[in-house]
């Protein structure tokens, strides 16, 4: 029977461990360095105040200092939650066809406050949302013309559901599409 391997007692630690590289870096307390980090974050993408604060803390900036920097950037207009939320609402609705419900969830996840979310979502009314959903449904319905009606129904309703539309809206739109097809002589 063989004995288990026992490394020699004087075995050296890895160079990384001996150099102290495994220890976390010290927190950033220098305001100039923290501002540099914040500007780097904002250069890559626009962020909400909450996202910027979280990103700074993740980069080891002292939480109090991160809050001060975010507050100052809000004062000078580098961080504008209301404008950013409005832009997100416009692009998500017009380009991606997302519903207000889906956009609201995204904005909440990104840390926008309820006032900014409500004001931004105010750009979209019920009629606009229904028109956008109808356009999406029509396009997908036409793409699936070669499929049986039940497959088309299931796929259109699923697509609208992924975009955040309520099942009742999705099924009502499919019903309208079926009726329009019957009136046009069917497919």
Architecture overview:
The protein is mainly alpha-helical. The protein has three domains: 15-76; 81-121, Arc Repressor Mutant, subunit A; 126-183. The protein has ten helices and no strands. The chain has helices spanning 15-19, 31-44, 49-58, 63-76, 81-94, 100-109, 114-121, 126-143, 149-162, 167-183. The longest helix has 18 residues, at 126-143.
Taking all Cα atoms into account, the compactness measure Rg is: 27 Å
List the secondary-structure elements in sequence, H or E. Answer: HHHHHHHHHH
The major sheet is characterized as: none
Total separate domains = 3
- Number of beta strands: 0
Count of runs of 4 or more consecutive helical residues: 10
Structural class: mainly alpha
- Give the quaternary arrangement of the chains: single chain
Task: Describe the SSE topology.
Elements: H1 15-19, H2 31-44, H3 49-58, H4 63-76, H5 81-94, H6 100-109, H7 114-121, H8 126-143, H9 149-162, H10 167-183
Helix pairs in contact: 2-4, 3-4, 5-7, 6-7, 8-9, 8-10, 9-10
């Amino acid at each position: 029977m063989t004995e288990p391997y026992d490394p020699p007692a004087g075995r050296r630690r890895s160079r990384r461990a001996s150099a102290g590289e495994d220890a976390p870096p010290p927190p950033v307390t220098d305001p100039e360095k923290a501002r540099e980090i914040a500007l780097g974050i904002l250069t890559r993408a626009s962020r909400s105040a909450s996202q910027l604060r979280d990103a700074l803390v993740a980069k080891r900036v002292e939480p109090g200092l991160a809050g001060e920097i975010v507050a100052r950037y809000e004062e000078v207009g580098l961080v504008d939650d209301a404008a950013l939320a409005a832009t997100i609402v416009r692009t998500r609705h017009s380009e991606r066809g997302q519903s207000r419900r889906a956009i609201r969830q995204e904005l909440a996840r990104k840390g926008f406050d309820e006032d900014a979310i409500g004001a931004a979502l105010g750009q979209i009314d019920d009629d606009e949302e229904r028109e956008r959903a109808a356009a999406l449904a029509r396009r997908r319905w036409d793409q699936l013309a070669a499929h049986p009606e039940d497959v088309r129904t299931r796929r259109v309703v699923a697509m609208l559901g992924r975009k955040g539309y309520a099942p009742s809206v999705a099924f009502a739109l499919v019903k309208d599409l079926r009726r329009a097809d019957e009136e046009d002589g069917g497919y």
